[in-house]
Amino acid sequence: MSNQRPLPKPDQDSLAYWEGARRHELLLQQCGSCQRFRFYPRSLCPHCFSEKFEWRKSAGLGSVYSFTVIHRAPFPAFREKVPYVLALIELNEGVRMMTNIVGCDPNMVEIGMPVEVTFEDLNEEITLPQFKPAKAS
């Protein structure tokens, strides 16, 4: 088994998302017909089936909707990362995205915890949006 971390493969629908991530911007598609945001990137709105959309910069704020702590690495490349948090984040724009929570003890993560986006540059092409506990206002 390879010791290399699996990387996302941008496609026609997601290329702008990954280009934004590389600039440390979290981009979401907003439907041009019903105005609802959507995530993951795709060519049709899942709400009204419109093909019209624009890319909008997200504030990158949300809360933990659900999560699990991974204690057993699914690939050798993740062995040094365990334990880590795999979470479903509900963004303030109303969409949910699967990601990691970083920057805190996995035992401190709870449902409803406020989080903010942060970025991990993996290489020159791929930057991963992840989330960390939000700074107290």
Description:
It is a single chain. With 137 residues, the chain is mainly beta. It has one domain (15-133). It is 6% helix and 37% strand. The chain contains one helix and eight strands; from the N terminus they run H-E-E-E-E-E-E-E-E. It has one helix spanning 15-22; strands at residues 27-31, 37-38, 53-57, 61-70, 84-91, 96-101, 114-121, 127-133. Strands 6-5-4-7-8 form a five-stranded antiparallel sheet. A three-stranded antiparallel sheet has the order 2-1-3.
Strand order of the largest sheet: 6-5-4-7-8
Measured distance between first and last alpha carbons: 45 Å
**Poorly predicted segments:** none
How many DSSP H or I helices?
Answer: 1
Q: What are the secondary-structure elements, in order, as H or E? A: HEEEEEEEE
Helix content: under 10%
Shape: globular
- Mean pLDDT figure: 94
User: How many individual β-strands?
Assistant: 8
Rg, rounded, reads 16 Å
Helix-and-strand structural type = mainly beta
**Number of folding domains?**
1
In percent terms, what proportion of residues is strand? 35-45%
Largest sheet, in brief, is: 5 strands, antiparallel
